């Protein structure tokens, strides 16, 4: 039973390969082999002039619709765009980037007071900055819930930011 199933899987996978590579599954070393065959086909087609008389040649692409997007989302984004509005996640991303830049600048300023005679400025500033990290990370969490798949971002971590700052101060 297992051998039959394995055989069927091999046949199905073999059919996924370009005709030039079918029956040679063991000879196909990597995805690069398949890419090379596809590139050869494209070059051959170009040499034969198969790309010369395509409809719309020389005309700008219609980028008003995204064929890969959900039609409802695409319509929504088009309406927002026509009314000069951005989706909530775009605006939230801008806000997060601004807040992170301001936060890092404040951390750098506070870092200068660390180790001085009066460490109280550093202690006070670092406490405030840790609270701000929490607020930024809450925005990141909200952003990650509403952003399209694959565009999620990471929040800030105090330890990583401190390591980054130490590297900057020693590397400069």
TrEMBL record:
It holds the Pfam family DJC28_CD. InterPro entries: DnaJ_C_subfamily_28, DnaJ_homolog_subfam-C_membr-28. Residues 37-103 form the DnaJ homologue subfamily C member 28 conserved domain. It comes from the Eukaryota. This is DnaJ homologue subfamily C member 28 conserved domain-containing protein. It comes from Capsicum annuum (Capsicum pepper).
